[in-house]
């Protein structure tokens, strides 16, 4: 396509939202008019399905749940007056709580004010708050935030070491819908033990964000924690950033949460329009379908050209892959759907893997995230008439052009600056794009059976570990792996038993392994 035709295509397909200053450019995806026309029937159905979802349809039949994260930024859409009031009340409670923490009206027993936040959660209960903190926290926030988002003991130690001198002024937020998520529960118990070791009353530092009547809510109320906030069963973890999960830590840091909600609401309104060209989320879904042939045949590389948006690719990784990565479609057919997402940031990636993007395997399309404002204030010139921001913009445009010249497609999303309103809009844009794409390919974007399967498999390993240790405690002489597996009644799981023993042995848990560690069949096992 010559330069004149390409310029015309850019103008024809450029979306602009005037109030948000928000652009979506899909002109560098090589679909043609016939392709767009062929997808119109699918989009018509997708728009209707999305409208039904927002009105309270059971979009998650596996769990008998509605999907209502859209109501969080526009309570008037909630299907019942009770739900509407709960959303409004929760937001007011979050703001009132943050004000009391900041003013010292709520304070820890051994310090004048809370200075730090320790957030314990995993998946959507961590990725959203982490992304928003990195993108929007003030240079001098009301409170510094720290995250325990895994059950890695060394990782937990590292965070607690950072807080050891300020534990007396640390507010702990425990986030778990069920209250039984193992990683979150483990982190909470380890933190409780550290508080106890310093003679601190954990309950006077603790806040729960959890489901109604969950084990965590019951624990928090029985122990007299400072406060509890709801995790609604109609909000999934990966779409929970604009619920208490993300709004409470953001408010405590001094981030304007009403502005985030306002930006999301404006984007929701824009993405409800039932016309592809007038709907930025539909343009993304169209481009994904084209880029992946509707079957996830290519990866999505996300390149935000702004340091503060570094974690956006990780946030989108969960949102897109957990939502779209499904074995079966809504009719029960095996389809193995999904889109792989990865990315870091520009222009760092131009010194990392853009070489492969330009000249290697063409198994991807790129999403550039562009921010027009370089910094808050004027920039010095690096060269005559050129600033650092000019270089960054030039690298983005140059990479986009170089990729397209070599038949690598791309999308560019442009925002005026990184602020609460634009971040809220970004979150809403991609939530809607994922939902629309899910309807286009006929899968349920709002459940995660694969995640549940992994949890069950992990629980089975821990049960096996318990039985292995019980057998060893009852034995007086060392056993071979085969003998041990037979006594446990799990001969078919001998490899898992070996790995359990190896882990316990490496952590001085009383397991004695005699023999060649590199030749498992030679080992004799006992317990000290």
Mean pLDDT: 95
Structural class by helix and strand composition? alpha/beta
Instruction: Name the beta content range.
Output: 5-15%
Shape: globular
Alpha carbon gyration radius: 26 Å
Poorly predicted runs of 5 or more residues:
none
Span between termini? 74 Å
* Count of beta strands: 16
- Assign a percent range to the helix content: 40-55%
**Continuous helix count:** 17
Largest sheet data: 6 strands, mixed
| Widest beta sheet: strand line-up | 1-2-13-10-8-9
Overview of this protein structure:
The protein is α/β, with parallel strands linked by helices and 528 residues long. It is built from 17 helices and 16 strands. It has a 6-stranded mixed sheet with strand order 1-2-13-10-8-9, sandwiched between helices. A 5-stranded parallel sheet has the order 4-3-5-6-7, sandwiched between helices. Strands 14-16-15 form a 3-stranded antiparallel sheet. Helix 4 (124-136) packs parallel to helix 8 (244-253). It is globular. 42% of the residues are buried.
């Amino acid at each position: 396509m010559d330069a004149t035709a390409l310029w015309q295509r850019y103008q024809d397909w450029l979306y602009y939202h005037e109030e948000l200053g928000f652009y979506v450019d899909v002109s560098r995806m090589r679909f043609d008019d016939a392709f767009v026309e062929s997808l119109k029937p699918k989009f018509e159905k997708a728009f209707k399905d999305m409208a039904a979802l927002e009105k309270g349809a059971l979009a998650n039949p596996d769990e008998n749940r509605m999907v209502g994260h859209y109501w969080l930024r526009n309570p008037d859409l909630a299907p019942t007056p009770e739900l509407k009031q709960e959303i409004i009340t929760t937001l007011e409670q979050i703001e009132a709580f943050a004000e009391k923490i900041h003013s010292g009206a709520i304070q820890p027993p051994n310090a004048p004010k809370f200075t730090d936040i320790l957030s314990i959660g995993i998946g959507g209960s961590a990725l959203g708050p982490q992304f928003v903190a990195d993108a929007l926290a003030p240079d001098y926030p009301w409170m510094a935030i720290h995250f325990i988002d895994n059950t890695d003991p060394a990782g937990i130690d590292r965070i607690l070491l950072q807080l050891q001198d300020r534990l007396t002024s640390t507010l702990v937020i425990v986030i778990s819908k069920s209250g039984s998520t193992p990683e979150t529960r483990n982190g909470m118990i380890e933190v409780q033990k550290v508080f106890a070791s310093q003679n601190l009353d954990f309950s006077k530092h603790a806040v729960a964000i959890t489901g109604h009547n969950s084990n965590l809510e019951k624990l928090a109320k029985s122990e007299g924690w400072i406060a509890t906030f709801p995790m609604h069963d109609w909000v999934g973890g990966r779409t929970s950033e604009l619920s208490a999960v993300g709004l409470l830590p953001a408010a405590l840091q001094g981030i304007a949460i009403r502005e985030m909600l306002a930006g999301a609401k404006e984007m929701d309104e824009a993405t409800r329009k039932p016309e592809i060209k007038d709907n930025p989320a539909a343009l993304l879904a169209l481009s994904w379908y084209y880029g992946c042939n509707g079957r996830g045949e290519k990866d999505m590389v996300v390149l935000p050209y702004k340091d503060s948006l570094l974690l956006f690719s990780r946030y989108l990784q969960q949102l897109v892959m957990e939502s779209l990565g499904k074995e079966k479609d809504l009719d029960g057919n095996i389809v193995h759907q999904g889109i792989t997402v990865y990315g870091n940031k520009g222009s760092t990636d131009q010194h990392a893997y853009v070489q492969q993007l330009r000249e290697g395997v063409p198994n991807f399309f790129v999403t550039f995230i562009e921010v027009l404002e370089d910094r808050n204030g004027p920039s010095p010139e690096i060269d005559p008439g050129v600033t650092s921001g000019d270089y960054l913009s030039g690298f983005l445009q140059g990479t986009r052009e170089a990729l397209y010249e070599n038949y690598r497609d791309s999308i560019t999303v442009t925002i005026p600056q990184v602020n609460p309103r634009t971040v809220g809009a970004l979150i809403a844009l991609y939530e809607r794009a994922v939902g629309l794409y899910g309807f286009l390919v006929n899968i349920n974007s709002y459940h995660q059976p694969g995640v549940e399967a992994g949890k069950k498999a992990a629980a089975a390993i821990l049960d096996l570990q318990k039985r292995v240790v019980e057998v060893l405690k009852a034995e007086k002489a060392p056993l071979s792996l085969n003998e041990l597996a037979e006594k446990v009644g799990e001969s078919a799981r001998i490899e898992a038993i070996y790995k359990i023993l190896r882990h316990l042995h490496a952590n001085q848990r009383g397991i004695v392994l005699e023999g060649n560690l590199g030749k498992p069949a030679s080992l004799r096992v006992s317990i000290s």
